[in-house]
Amino acid sequence: MRRLDVTRERKNCFVPTSEIIAVEETDLNKKQHNSGKWQKMAKPHAFTVYYVKKARNHRWWCSDVTFWCVDEQLCNQWIQALKELLELQKARPKQLLVYINPYGGKRQGKRIYEQKVAPLFSLASISTDVFITERANHAKDNLFEVNINKYDGVVCVGGDGMFSEVMHGLIGRMQKDSGIDQNNPKAPLVQCNIRIGIIPAGSTDCICYSTVGISDPVTSALHIIVGDSQPLDVSSVHHNNTFLKYTVSLLGYGFYGDILKDSEKKRWMGPMRYDYSGFKTFLSHHCYEGTISFQPAKHTLGSPRDKDSCRTGCHICRQSEQQLAEQRKKCGLKHEEDEEEWKVIKGKFLAINVVNMSCACPRSPKGLSPAAHLADGSADLILVRKCSRFDFLRYLVRHTNQDDQFDFSFVDVYRVKSFQFTSKLLEDNESDVTDIGKKHFGQFCRDHPACCCNIANSTWNCDGETLDSSAIEVRVHCQLMKLFARGIEENCKEASRNQSRVEQLL
Ligand SMILES: CCCCCCCCCCCCC/C=C/[C@@H](O)[C@H](COP(=O)(O)O)NC(=O)CCCCC
Ligand SMILES: Nc1ncnc2c1ncn2[C@@H]1O[C@H](COP(=O)(O)OP(=O)(O)O)[C@@H](O)[C@H]1O
Ligand SMILES: [Ca+2]
Questions:
Q1: Which fold has domain 235-329+341-478?
Q2: pTM score, two decimals?
């Protein structure tokens, strides 16, 4: 194929076809061609290639380059050839179902979608059915009714809560269609092959940040367009053989549960509500007593204290994927009895966090567990035992800097595949239902009334949704669903430098 010269003073660049967004014949009436030698062309022809340009900090944006030539046939041949190359990109979505939460974050979801995302989808010839939610659970309910097979993916515009809603709709629908009882905590769940794309427009946007590396609507739209795919572990939460919720990011009791509960009353403050409630909860310094049991994740190679983080093409997640495939071959969807040992820990805790991913977000760029993996079939259990306010502050500050947040005597971290928690209050009530006196201690610790140990239960923060249950059972389901994402790319700065250094387009 002959080469076309690249016009303008732009540096030449190399773009993999997988990152070309669209190719269009250029409207010469709109495009100025009064620079360089093209000015002298009697009747120029041109086409424009739109492609992904990688900037710093994992940010992507849509750039374009226009090629001019005098030969109309040659120009058309190039357009045709490039369009055929794009047709070969089979992982790209053609039809998407979009849910927008107009009240998430700073209430900008609709504007963000219309101004930043819809034009890119249209450029990439993606058709969309857009649904603006009118109430909580609207998207979830709708997902049980729509003809889901019509779509190549579902996009949610909002925060982690909105993502959680869409995920519950899709996973729930999948289990219902396959006759799986979600109330059975041991039921092997059916994988959800319809990918979800997240356009961040919420308050924390931790799921987007932890899977793409930045909370930026344009970057996320481009990940959807190029058809990226990132498998994701999902944990199910049950109480007494009753299904409560699924979680992919943070399941937190104590500190993060209390922040969430308080912040819900301050929704009008927007994302700032978390700073306000965070400060208030920090000052209240409540700790909670209970029993934790967990099964360590022995199948995975990594550890929560690893220095390396989960990155695009992570070998630890790939190894778990292989194990999963082998297990499926061996047992199909049959449940395999799990006899592995349970470890039990009793104590007083300021925070009990179970995280399926790092939980990195703009507030905490490394996240709650920097070495957690997106798709290894395990979660990191972080226990912050009762300590002084000062020590707890030191711990929190380490969420925002490079220091090791697990290097404290009052913090323990375990990689687990299942986990259970029962609050002391519930244990007492269950073991001694007749001892009515015990129930009247109210908010105070019986051992030391002056300490901050709260006899009342905390609530669970389940991906930003409150969950009131003082006893739960959690199980990690390896790679239960997929996102339009590629994980966090290594050496992003290096990649963007290379992109502009290499010399040829195609
Ligand atoms: C002295 C400085 C202390 C700073 C500590 C900062 C710690 C931040 C950790 C953030 C962890 C985030 C885990 C993600 C949780 C989200 O799923 C949840 C809901 O998100 P969304 O639906 O988008 O609103 N967000 C939260 O629970 C907020 C936690 C904020 C804590 C300050
Ligand atoms: N139209 C709506 N009105 C009220 N709540 C909604 C609506 N659509 C979705 N929700 C709910 O709002 C909650 C928070 O949404 P989210 O997009 O995560 O915003 P934020 O990040 O600010 O919490 C979710 O639980 C979701 O179910
Ligand atoms: Ca994981």
A1: Tumour Suppressor Smad4 (2.60.200)
A2: 0.91
